[in-house]
Amino acid sequence: MRKLSNILVTGGAGFIGVNFIRFLFENSAVQQRIINLDSLTYAGNAASLKDINEKFGGTRYFFEYGSICDKPIVEDIFQKYDIDTVIHFAAETHVDRSILGPKTFMDTNVMGTFVLLETARKFWKNADGTYRNDVLFHHVSTDEVYGSLGITGFFTETSPYNPSSPYSASKAAADHLVKSYFCTYGLPVTISNSSNNYGPYQFPEKLIPLMILNMIDGKELPLYGDGKNVRDWLYVNDHNAALWTIAQKGRAGETYVIGGDNEWENIELVYTLINIIARKTGKDADKIRDSITYVKDRPGHDRRYAADCSKIKIELGWEQSISREEGFERTIDWYMINSEWTRNVQSGEYRNWLELNYNRR
Known about the structure:
The chain is α/β, with parallel strands linked by helices. Helices cover 45% and strands 16% of the residues.
């Protein structure tokens, strides 16, 4: 079991990062210090961790407001907190945005990863050129780097890279960069490529929260193309349990594919959400279904993703714990209860809270 003391979580104010930090603090066995570095772009919300900050701020939780691309900031954090573990979430992730403006994706996803790797290499190296035996750089990536599957087959750790969008290409480049630092410099790294995540605190431009909120508000339900693109859906806390398992037990230099064993055509997924929303709200399911609107497909839209996560199950003993039924129920309940969070993150009102609590480094 790897010793972890001072964990730098990059992008910890984003969807998966917020849930990862909450996962750690809800686990009584976890006593490490967590340092959250986030530049708070449109999808990052520090207020999502307000209760964690109020309870643990200054003792076990520390928020640093800055960019992973800013080398002096990153180096200062490594030195100030004696960072021994990096869980690297920080990335631009929305495919549509990458099509409209790819430069930001290259800057953050590639050059930001480079800055982090260089800083880890600098601070973790011993005088003899080896590395400390208590350190790990874990890079959180996506199965989208593998491109599109046909109607059969699964992505594995040995699948060839075949990215289809500027987003997935930038993540593929980052994956290769991380691997090269293990092969060339011996830096202790691990990589995970996960399928589509869903759950609480996800920015409403993503498919599941967008559909849930539009159903509740009586708005149109836009689906790309014919609605038959297939995704494997992974509940976010199952993902975070996998990441924590890798951080503790993963073998340096290895890649682990993480999936939900939960494939859905987009249209089937939307029908399922409609039925749950109708039951919970009393709305007419047929009327909600009439709101489905098919829109022009986006360029390079991958047809199917599916992940074979046998390796992490066999080698590290991880398993999914949330069924698809429970995951969808939990997610819908969260968005129904937390309408204020949704309103604030969409309007940017949380930034007023931010300005009162943090200054950019």
